Amino acid sequence: xxxxxxxxxxxxxxxxxxxxxxxxxxxxxxxxxxxxxxxxxxxxxxxxxxxxxxxxxxxxxxxxxxxxxxxxxxxxxxxxxxxxxxxxxxxxxxxxxxxxxxxxxxxxxxxxxxxxxxxxxxxxxxxxxxxxxxxxxxxxxxxxxxxxxxxxxxxxxxxxxxxxxxxxx
Length: 169
Description:
Blueprint: H1 17-20, H2 25-45, E1 56-58, E2 73-79, E3 84-91, H3 103-117, E4 124-129, H4 136-150, H5 159-162
Antiparallel strand pairs: 1-4, 2-3, 2-4
């Protein structure tokens, strides 16, 4: 069982479990199913890059020592239980990208709270595609193409499409 403790200084982008509970269990599962259906169709029709087949890392990867000092990559934040890509990003320093502020951390916390409110299993992982462009502009172009291909719901470009309920503006 997970317990939630309110912060003295709550992040305005993070919903409490009580707020997250407003999304019913059936609505949460239906939302995830719609996203998963699209992404599975992409996987079947354009298997050029399969984020689910890349080596998985825990979301706390940025707290672990990085032997390489951090390299450029494209990364995917994935709900492993549901096989849903939640976010696609790029970085020139994989060892620093998730340290400090990142809006996606708040969306993930809201997502976790919604799962917790309904006692649903959840495992969030990251996968990394290291064989990508080293030049930032080229990597950002590839990131954009992958966002439009996979339509991950936590990328801002797709909020309206999926009516993403985990973003608190």
